C-alpha cells in the first residue's frame, strides 16, 4: 500500500514537472493562427512573455518596429545605435530578440552584433536593413546574426523572423 | 446624417485610392494603416509626421553639403539620401523613395548638378505628399465628427 502511494505521488510529481515545463514552453512561444496570417489580418495576440530590443537610429523606423512588436504582444525597448544596445546589456538587461539595424552612427549594427556576441549575449539577433547586396548581408550575418530581413518591416516579415527563430508554434 | 457619413466615406475611399494610383503611396502605407488601432488612433498621422520632420532636416543638411561646388561632401549627401530612402520606404512614400534612388545614382558618380536637381525634386515630392496626406487626415476627422467610421479600403 505504502509503495503504491509512493508510486502515485512520484507519478503526480512528474506530471506537475512536465506541466510546468510545458507552460514555460508556452510562455516563450506565441501560438499563431495560420488563418490570420493567410487572411492578411494583423494577429492581435494576448501578451506573450517575449521581450525585444529595437536598435535603430531612425525615428520613423523606431516607431514602426516598436508598434509591430507591440501588436504581437512583445514588450520592447528602443535604442538609437549599437553603442546604446551594448550599454543596455551592460546594465544587466536581457532580451529574447534584438532587431538590429545596420547603418547607425557611433556603433553600427555589424560592430554591435560582434560586441554583443563577444560579451556572451545569446539573444536571437535579426538584422533589419535596406541594404540587400549579397556581400553586405554576408558580412552582417557573419557578425553573429540569427536571421535577416530587408526593410521595410511588416507584420508578415516579423512573423517570419519569429518563425525562423523558433519563437512561435503554429496552432 | 447617414447620407453625409456615406458621402464622406466614399470621398475618403476615392481619395485614398487616387493617392495609390498616382504613385504617391505604395503597399507599405497599407501596412502602416493595419497597425493603427483603437489604442493608437493617430498612429499613422504620428509616423508620417516624424517622416516629414526627417525629410525637412535631411534636405537642409544635404543642401548645405551641396552648397559649395568646390567642396561637396558626397559622403554626407549619400548618408542623407540613404536615410531618406529608408524612411520613405518605411512609410510607403513611393515618389519620394523613387527620387532617392536617382539621387543615390548621382551621388555615386559625384554629379553635383544631378544631386541638386534630385534635392529639388525630393523637396517638392515630400511637400506635395504632406499636403495630400493632410487632406486625407482631415477627411478622416470629418467622418469621425459626423459619427461614422473610417472605411477599410482594399487596395489591390
Automatic annotation (TrEMBL), chain A:
Domain of life per record:
Eukaryota
Q: Which residues form the Response regulatory domain?
A: 51-166
The record's annotation in Pfam families points to:
Response_reg
A GO BP term here is:
phosphorelay signal transduction system
Q: Which SMART domains match?
A: REC
List where this protein forms a coiled coil. none
Which keywords does this Swiss-Prot/TrEMBL entry list? Phosphoprotein, Signal
Which residues are reported to carry the modification 4-aspartylphosphate? Answer: 101
- InterPro entries assigned to the protein according to its UniProt record, in alphabetical order: CheY-like_superfamily, Sig_transdc_resp-reg_receiver, ST_Response_Regulator
Any signal peptide, and if so, which residues?
Answer: 1-21
Mind telling me which PANTHER family this protein's record contains?
A: TWO-COMPONENT RESPONSE REGULATOR, TWO-COMPONENT RESPONSE REGULATOR 24
Spell out the protein name for this chain. Answer: Two-component response regulator 24-like
Please name the source species. Answer: Raphanus sativus (Radish)
> Lineage, please?
Eukaryota, Viridiplantae, Streptophyta, Embryophyta, Tracheophyta
Q: Which gene encodes it?
A: LOC130496393
From TrEMBL, chain B:
User: Mainly resides where?
Assistant: cytoplasm
- The domain of life is Eukaryota
**One of the Pfam families matching this protein, by short name:** Hpt
Q: Tell me where in this chain the PTM Phosphohistidine is found.
A: 82
- Single GO MF descriptor: histidine phosphotransfer kinase activity
Question: Does the record bear Cell cycle in its keywords?
Answer: no
One of the record's GO cellular component terms:
nucleus
| Compartment(s) where it occurs, according to its Swiss-Prot or TrEMBL record | Cytoplasm, Cytosol; Nucleus
One BP annotation, GO: phosphorelay signal transduction system
Which keywords annotate this record? Answer: Acetylation, Cytokinin signaling pathway, Cytoplasm, Nucleus, Phosphoprotein, Two-component regulatory system
Ranges for domain HPt come to 40-147
Q: What exactly does this protein do?
A: Functions as a two-component phosphorelay mediators between cytokinin sensor histidine kinases and response regulators (B-type ARRs). Plays an important role in propagating cytokinin signal transduction.
What domain notes does the record hold?
Answer: Histidine-containing phosphotransfer domain (HPt) contains an active histidine that mediates the phosphotransfer.
Q: What is this protein called?
A: Histidine-containing phosphotransfer protein
